[in-house]
Amino acid sequence: MQSLKRLTLLQLLIVIATTLQAQNLRDEIAIVRAHPGTSMVSTYESMADWLEELREYDLENEMRGRALGSHGSSFSYNGEDGQRYFITNYHVIAGAGDISLEWQPIDGSEPLIIEGCTVLYSDPLRDLALIGLPDGVDVPGQGLEIIEDKGSVNDGMEIWAAGYPGLISSPVWQLSKGIVSNQSALVKELAREGRPYLIQHTSVVDPGSSGGPLMIKQGSEYRVIGVNAMMANYRNNTFFSIPSSSLNAFISEFQEGAATPSQESLEEKLDRFTDLLSSDSTESHELSFYISDEYSLTIGWDLYLERRRRMGFDDRDKWDRAIVIGNSLRGLKNLISEDLKQYSDPMGVSWRIGNYNTVDAEVFIAGGDGSEIRTLWTFEKGVWVLSGYPADIEKREAEEVPSSPDTTAAKSRRLAYRSGIGFFAGGSYGFGKDGSGATGLGGFSLGVEFLLMHNRYFGSSYIFSYEQYKLVSRDYEENFLAYDPGVAGFGYQLSFYPAKLVEAHRFFPFIRAGAGIGFNIRDFGDSEGSPLIGYLSAAGGLQFKPEKGKGVFSAMVEAKSVGSLMNMGDYAAGGLQLGLILSYIISR
């Protein structure tokens, strides 16, 4: 009986110790709240408005959700200076304006939230960031120990991943167990400077777990061997963590003062950047790690809308997916990187620093032929990044970047050069004071149209035209008299585009209606003529947007009721004009 009691007590102590240990581990893991800055909110709301105009309501709602911010995970460690710091992924805090850390108690009580945290150092290439606490703040935990993965990690060994993945609408604690499936995964597409390999494992890493620790157990203690970063799509149980060898190098750089802005650190960054510009094999995304988040959010969306006007269908589809459907900030940085590639030079690229202050610098980059371009750099999140390059600097100085979206359906001002032929049908209309009517025989029109879209659906057309047609008028004595007005006139039409204008549909219908007034220049000074002509019109047709080029082709059938507005003689004429109008619209 005594043996049974001792065994029961021992089991109870093990349960209590395990519970305390789990509680202690939770103390070391914090939720990272990345609160969006002004630039991020403004950009994502502009993108959401654009999607709303396209009636892409699911994507619109998702984009408005992005504008509210995001979360990830982090873990604490003690620095050599005795301070507590928190490690997370760079992509968790990218573009954030403010950072807060949050702890969820195991008993479900109110969470502990620490506002005003700061990104002290970061490395977009390694996808690592180091967060500091406000002065004088106490937080739970003692700090996890980070050990070298090399020599400590082997294929098949048990590992644990901890973090706060999202569940429905809130982050929820998760500790998962798995094995190392590849202690040194050499994936070319994922390898970067300072991060040549990753740890591949089966411990679950869901969205929101990014930045949490990958751990092994040594005795009863958890030891960090990596930082959870990503999962593989279209494959089961395939997750990747940044190894602690890369993390320790990152921490060492911080402790050695890399987070303090200096001209020396700028020069090191410029050396690496110009090396990329000097290589034919450099991919656009490799340059994106050197571009400022704030800068990308400030100018990236407007820059894309401008570039998009000149893109073919395939390129539009590619970049829409990258920027709107995928990671928006990453997509905008890749777009700017694509622009930067035009300044690459296999003959070699050099640099010289112009104006320099503590956190900003003007840098001139020269190609092999000696020609220079001016760039701007700033110190952001503890690292030097590009914050201005020629295409944008010149635009800021010379013109305003368009901010309204191009929705393919003449969202902006357009000039349309119109020509067509009209076919007329008529009867007894009684436009003359003698009760005469008219029958149309045919004619043509030439014109220039200025089209201004007010919103996604409605636009105004201001038409300057010359129309030549022949009418036969019948007077009260049944005499038929030829009437050949040549009308130079001005008209107004209101257009409506009811179709959902997405890139997969380059044909879109429209309807329009309006009125106009014209001056019969052929009958000017003729006492028997009617110099002032008026009309009412209604039309419907299709516009076609080719895959390449700025123009839009338009074909419409227009019904126009034409008649004199004043009568200077014994007769006047009117008729119904039915015509086919072919147009080519050039975007301004």
Unreliable spans: 12-20, 399-417, 424-441, 500-505, 568-573
Q: Termini, distance in Å?
A: 94 Å
**Strand percent estimate:** 35-45%
Radius of gyration: 35 Å
How is the topology of this model organized?
Layout: H1 2-28, E1 29-36, H2 38-53, H3 57-66, E2 70-78, E3 84-88, H4 90-93, E4 96-103, E5 112-123, E6 128-132, E7 145-146, E8 158-163, E9 166-167, E10 170-171, E11 174-185, E12 198-201, E13 213-218, E14 221-231, E15 239-243, H5 244-255, H6 263-277, H7 284-288, H8 293-308, H9 313-325, H10 328-340, E16 350-356, E17 360-366, E18 372-380, E19 383-388, H11 390-398, E20 414-425, E21 437-453, E22 458-474, E23 480-483, E24 486-496, E25 507-520, E26 532-544, E27 552-564, E28 574-587
Parallel strand pairs: 7-14
Antiparallel strand pairs: 1-2, 1-4, 2-3, 3-6, 4-5, 5-6, 8-11, 8-13, 9-10, 11-12, 12-15, 13-14, 14-15, 16-17, 17-18, 18-19, 20-21, 20-28, 21-22, 22-23, 22-24, 24-25, 25-26, 26-27, 27-28
Helix pairs in contact: 2-3, 2-8, 8-10, 9-10
